[in-house]
Structures are given as structure tokens and as C-alpha cells.
Specification:
3-stranded antiparallel sheet, about 150 residues, 1 helix, Immunoglobulin-like
């Protein structure tokens, strides 16, 4: 075996290849450089990052949507699925500007989440402020924790 036949093992390469397969499967453009380390200059589809938090009254989804207009975001609840859709527009090119790098994602986005058991989909409400969408999903009365007094005899 010659020394030229050895390759350096990269533990993250397999994960990156798996992620790239998923992004191709769902028609997305990967956000990382592919084989050979070539940079991607544009990303045409994206999914905003979200946090989902639960307390004793509700589930709260917080989605980062910087530079997205309120009127370009839609929240729906249908058939047990909560969906957030919208679009972040690319600023129109101006002749006196030269773009050297475009890494931020633009275009349509969609995030869907199955409603948890005990959620009251009829009372969902949303607010949009400072580039953050907050979707409140109240728990139904039957899903809220109840304290039971234990009597000792």
C-alpha cells in the first residue's frame, strides 16, 4: 500500500453528505460548501429557524424572520398541522452596486408542525415584532395540568 492511497478521515463528512442528500430530496439548496469546498454564492430556498417552548398554558413557536414584512407571512392551522409560510424578497439590484457575496437566504419559505395532543387549534394567535414571529397555541382545558389534593388518613 502506497502512502498516496491513504486519505484523511473527516468525521463530519458523512453527516454533511447525509444533509446534502436530504436537501436534494426536498428540493433545497445546501447552505454549506459542497465537494471541493467551493462556496455557494446564492441560496434560493430556505427555512427560518424556530424555537418551540411549552409552559402550563400554551406552546409558543418563535420564528426568526429578519427583513420579512408582516404582510408576507401567513400562519394557518388545518387538519392538525400548523404552517408558517411567507417570502423574503431580495432587494432589487441597483446598477451602481456590486455584490461581492450573497449568503443570506431569500425566496419562499414554509415550516409545518403537527399540533401536539391537547392543543386548541381554534384559539391560535400570532404576533410579529422586530423580525420575530410568535405563534401562540393555547392548551385546551383538558390538557392543562391539574393539582389534586392528597388526603392522608
Amino acid at each position: 500500500m502506497s502512502i498516496n492511497a491513504l486519505t484523511r478521515w473527516d468525521p463530519f463528512k458523512e453527516m454533511e453528505e447525509l444533509q446534502n442528500r436530504f436537501t436534494r430530496l426536498f428540493g433545497l439548496t445546501p447552505a454549506r460548501p459542497g465537494n471541493g469546498g467551493q462556496e455557494l454564492m446564492t441560496i434560493t430556498e430556505w427555512a427560518p429557524s424556530v424555537d418551540i417552548v411549552e409552559d402550563n398554558k400554551e406552546w409558543l413557536v418563535k420564528a426568526d424572520l429578519p427583513e420579512v414584512k408582516k404582510e408576507d407571512v401567513k400562519v394557518t392551522v388545518e387538519n392538525g398541522v400548523r404552517t408558517i409560510t411567507g417570502e423574503r424578497q431580495f432587494e432589487k439590484e441597483e446598477k451602481d452596486k456590486k455584490y461581492h457575496r450573497i449568503e443570506r437566504s431569500y425566496g419562499n419559505f414554509l415550516r409545518s408542525f403537527t399540533l401536539p395532543d391537547g392543543a386548541d387549534g381554534a384559539k391560535v394567535n400570532a404576533e410579529f415584532k422586530d423580525g420575530v414571529l410568535k405563534v401562540h397555541l393555547p392548551k385546551s382545558e383538558t390538557a392543562k395540568p391539574k393539582a389534586v389534593e392528597v388526603k392522608v388518613s
